[in-house]
Design a protein that fits this description.
heterodimer, A: 326 residues, 2-enoyl-CoA Hydratase, Chain A, domain 1, eight-stranded mixed β-sheet, 9 strands, B: 308 residues, alpha/beta, seven-stranded mixed β-sheet, two-stranded antiparallel sheet, 10 strands, 16% strand, globular
Amino acid sequence: MTTEQRKPFLLDFEKPLAELEAQIQQVREKSAEMGVDLSEQIHQLEARAAQLRQEIFSKLTASQKLQLARHPRRPSTLDYIQAISDEWMELHGDRRGTDDSAIVGGVARLEGQPVVMIGHQKGRDTKDNVVRNFGMASPGGYRKAIRLMDHADRFGMPILTFIDTPAAWAGLEAEQYGQGEAIAYNLREMFRLQVPIICTVIGEGGSGGALGIGVGDRLLMFEHAVYSVAPPEACAAILWRDAQKSPYAAEALKITAPDLQSLGIIDQILPEPLGGAHASPLKATEILKAALIQNLQELNQCSAQKRREMRYQKFRHIGIFTEVSA
Amino acid sequence: MSLFDWFANRPKSGSPPSVSQAQEREIADGLWTKCEACGVMTYTKDLRANQMVCPECNHHVRVYSDERIRQLIDPGTWIPMDEHLIACDPLQFKDRKPYSDRLLEYRKKTGLRDAIETGRGQLDSLPLGLGVMDFRFMGGSMGSVVGEKITRLIEFATRDRLPVVLVCASGGARMQEGMLSLMQMAKTSAALERHRQERLLYIPVLTHPTTGGVTASFAMLGDIILAEPKATIGFAGRRVVEQTLHEKLPENFQTAEYLLGQGFLDAIVPRTQLKPTLVRLIRLHQPVEQPLPLIAPTLNLSGLAVDS
């Protein structure tokens, strides 16, 4: 991928790196032009670039991770599903009158095992995003998801969900058709299901819209993914009364994978290739696939009853408070 | 009104409360109370006797947890649960003010420890588990304490085979506890799933306002869902929806009446009828210990043209 192609999607914090890479390119061109051997210099610059990349990506702030999680080139649910499954057939509709394209789902085979995969689907470009509603699901999306999960449960197929949404859709029709009820119903029913459920936050986990397909035996999260109780922008507008304070909100809300692991909310962090999942989608896919298979093997060892009990206990213990005497 | 709206509309700290609000409060503490809807003055004792419903225009004045428990539970039967749970600022959250300071302030101002009171008691001698959210405490928002108290209440009711009633009033998840708050939605729903598996009755009563993460969890999971007249009930805040659509919304949007029309509620029950309604519903769902032999009434079919 050349620098020119990447340019429109360059994030602020990647700029020093991009400048260095441009410099390397210049030296290369000069070397070729003048027929001088500058390989020593190029080598040094490349080492410096590698070091800089390492530095930048090892200490990203919460708001920088938020930018990465929303990166337009970041692999989406369908990218991952198509890459990790042996075969895949998308299924449609909630059987209640709608087929929301902000949530996709279907039957697939993962290393020979039939599974049901479901996830939020963001668009790849503006046109696609209009169709996908930027990955913001309507009640019909959550109802399609639970319909497919029930299907999985009936046929003993494990459920793999992929979370990548800014939030549940906040539109007139979403309210009219019971956005709250649709999400609530899924939360309760996902505790009823007998089959293993693994949820992975692949990009952006946005509040109830994410949780609506996010109750499982295991909750995995990519290294630069985020998961938040409310969009940091909205939180800043309310609590700081200033949407510009969103980086502060992102920091304060503890939305990164390491933060959520230490709060006991997620179970495992999936490392991303240097530069983020979009820098090397194939590598990210391999990491995801290996983690899913490993977790699935572990969960398959337990009885359905044991799994359900563990799922209950896992969520039962989330929350931090003090018990005082008197 | 969502939590978002509530925070936005809250009077700025430092600036004095508006005259009308100050007056309202003064009058409320006094002998007479002026109805905020119709303006008619009512003798406070009478208003209280009418469960804080304006006798003139039927406006439901907001009531808080202590008053609500008094209205519903038979005198002398209320046993509070988990009063010793308090929030502890797990994220060390600070916006314009540290969360820990806010908590202290609200505890002092309201005399409550958090945004819900739970316990067991009797409703016309019927035992039940009751939770009443309190909008005074940070907009009734749900953090770890609210989630834990609701979960413990439901677990207790499941063990003791009791029906559960939750009176909801909340702006949603408490942002100051981040993802811990969001996960309380799942936790409470999990407890309700077990309660449900035991075929026990759960009735949420949605009061003004019930929005956000509370709507998207236990508020909408009732076997039967009741609401107070004109209560605002929704997922996204009205202003958020307006901003999303850039258009005005219908007048009754996100009211209890609107939700009833959409099929998301079973009934809108005036506050004065709430206790008898709950009693009736709980009685109807109690297992009949010794079913009476059903005797078909003897019909007089003479005069009907029946082929036999």
